[in-house]
Amino acid sequence: MIKDFGAGVGLLLRGFSLVFSSPKRVLMGALPAVITAVLMIGGWVLLVTNIDSIAGWLTGFADSWSDTWKSVVEVAVGISVIAAGLGLSVLLFTAITLMIGGPFYEYISEEVEDELGGVPDAEQIGWWRGFLVGLRGTLLLVGTSILFAIPLFFCGFIPIIGQTVVPVLAVLINGYLLGIELTGIPFTRRGRTFKQRRQILATRRGLVLGLAVPTYLLCLIPLAALVVIPAAMAGGTVLSHRLLNGDRARA
After folding, report:
1. CA distance linking residue 72 with residue 63, whole number of Å
2. Which residues of 131-162 are buried (b: 16+ CB within 10 A; e: fewer)?
3. Quick one: which of 87, 94, 86, 90 has its CA closest to 32?
4. What is the gyration radius of the CA atoms in the chain, in angstroms?
5. N or C: which terminal CB in the chain sees fewer CB atoms within 10 Å?
6. Is the confidence at residue 207, as pLDDT, over 90?
7. What is its main location (predicted)?
8. What is the pLDDT of residue 72?
9. Would you tell me how many other CB atoms lie within 10 Å of the CB of residue 214?
């Protein structure tokens, strides 16, 4: 697992090398991310400006409590909502960026795979199909993330565990889901289904986490996703190429 995680980090670094070796790839990868960044910033402004109302609505059960305890609960819930939104925003950012920039990332993925030997009889995805595939994947992955986020949300109130174990689990879970999203284009070009993608990636979870967890954490830095997502896509393409060509030992 540790060896695979390190190899996954190496795939992300290789992704940076592959993207930044061509100014055109950098530009193609950044454009969809810029559009998504504008949309996400708008969403965050709405969330932050209305967080008091949201926290008050979620803590209606505490209306009969003393003002002190009610305020404590509202603050705790508000922080939890912001934290959950932050975790989901990385997945949403990647998913929306991939839906908007399907042809851009298909171009990067195709160029990377050509350098690796190409894909015989590769399917051309196109913007519309890429959008639909991305939308379906987004709904499934975000839905899965929310299912995990609910118990983690309540575990966050447990002393010590809520401040140590829970954040780590949240990063690992959301990171792995992000890894599934990053490999969508190369798998689809080979005619593989979403279910098949999950099954194949599950055989090398450490490798997927090594690629996706650093990507997830870097994307928490404002505007870093503009360069991180294209590099992670290239790294995800290399990962997919190796696993789908049976070269699992070298992957």
Report:
1. 12
2. bebbeebbebbbebbeeebeebbeebeeeeeb
3. 94
4. 19
5. N
6. yes
7. membrane
8. 72
9. 19
* Locus of tokens 């042809």: 103
Lowest mean pLDDT among 38-52, 168-182, 198-212: 38-52
CA distance 124 to 133: 13
| Cα 159 from Cα 164, distance rounded (Å) | 9
Report the sign of the C-alpha dihedral through residues 46, 52, 55, 58, in that order: negative
What is the per-residue DSSP string for the chain?
A: -HHHHHHHHHHHHHHHHHHHT-HHHHHHHHHHHHHHHHHHHHHHHHHHHTHHHHHHHHTGGGTTS-HHHHHHHHHHHHHHHHHHHHHHHHHHHHHHHHHHTHHHHHHHHHHHHHHTT--TTPPP-HHHHHHHHHHHHHHHHHHHHHHHHHHHHHHTTSTTHHHHHHHHHHHHHHHHHHHHHHTHHHHHHTT--HHHHHHHHHTTHHHHHHHHHHHHHHHTSTTTHHHHHHHHHHHHHHHHHHHHTT-TTT-
